[in-house]
Design goal:
alpha+beta, four-stranded mixed sheet, elongated
């Protein structure tokens, strides 16, 4: 999996990089078909923003979070990405189960 972390108007410190990589484990445990993850950290006056884009086989998921603290923004961002990834996986599983039921029913 490719991982890219960048900052706009902010220096990405080793502490921020470490925080993002520890949160990254939540995504990789949930799905092993993640192709890439791109996280952009930015600062606008008092708002700390984190944006993330996850490319999974067959789809692209995007989320962003804005808080007063950068660490809280990163936490909220990964919560949103985990929710999106979980919904995407459930949608795939439901679709395949429906197809199997239809084949058994009509086949």
């Amino acid at each position: 999996m490719q991982f890219q972390l960048s900052g706009q108007k902010i220096d990405v410190t080793p502490a921020l990089r470490n925080h993002v990589t520890t949160k990254l484990d939540r995504l990789t445990r949930l799905d092993d078909r993640i192709v890439s993850l791109s996280v952009v950290l930015s600062v606008d006056k008092l708002q700390q923003r984190a944006e993330g884009t996850v490319k999974v086989v067959g789809s692209t998921l995007h989320a962003e979070a804005t808080e007063n603290d950068m660490y809280a923004s990163i936490d909220n961002l990964f919560d949103k990405l985990v929710d999106q990834l979980r919904r995407y996986r459930e949608k795939l599983c439901d679709k395949h189960q429906r197809e199997v039921r239809e084949i058994r029913q009509y086949g």
